[in-house]
Amino acid sequence: MIVHIIGSLRQFDEDKTYILKIVETTEKIGGRIAFDWISSAISRRQRGQLPVEQTFDWSELVESNIHAISRCDAVIVEGSRFNYSQGYQTAIALQYNKPVLNLYRQNLPEYKEWPDRLFVSGINHPLFSSKAYSTEQELEMIVTNFLRDHTKEGHELDIKLSLDDTTYRKLREATDVNHKSEAGIVRDILLKALNEQ
After folding, report:
1. Residue range(s) defining the domain that contains residue 179
2. 191 and 119 in one domain?
3. Residue ranges in the chain whose pLDDT is less than 70
C-alpha cells in the first residue's frame, strides 16, 4: 500500500513526532510513503534552515504532491495546523477517489480557535473520515485501523516488459492523461484483458 502523508511546516518541530508516528505505523504494516517531504523538512531543520517560502520551487512541490496523490492508495492528513495546502490536497485526493483520513489534536489552542476545523470535519464523502487523537498510541491505533480498512488483498508479480518506441510513447501519454504510473496503466490493461476472458 502506498500512502501520501500531508502535514504542515508551520510549527513542524511540535508536530514532527506525530508525523513520524504516522510514517512508522504505515511502514509497520507494510506500507510505503508516496512522497518523502518529511526527511527533507527534518534535514533543513537540522541544518538550521527555516522553510522560507521563497526558497521552495513551488511548481515542483505542487506537482510532486499531485503526482503522489494520483499514484497512492490512501492519504493521511495531520491536520492539527490548518492550511490551504491540506484542504487543496484533500479535495484532489477525493476527486481521485482516494480514501482520506484527517487527523487532529483538538487540545491545541490553534485548533480550538480556528473556525475552518468545522468545515474540514463537515466534509461528507464516503472516502473521508476525520478523527481526533491525543496520544501517539491513539494515533497509531487510528492509522492502523484506517490502513487495514483500505488495504486491498493482492499478490505482487515482478514483470519485465520490453516495448518499442511507439508503444512506450503511448504508455507515457496514458500516464499523463490518467494520472497514473506506468505500472498502474499496465496493471489496468492486464486486468481488463483478464476480465474479458
Report:
1. 165-196
2. no
3. 48-56, 111-112, 114-121, 153-156
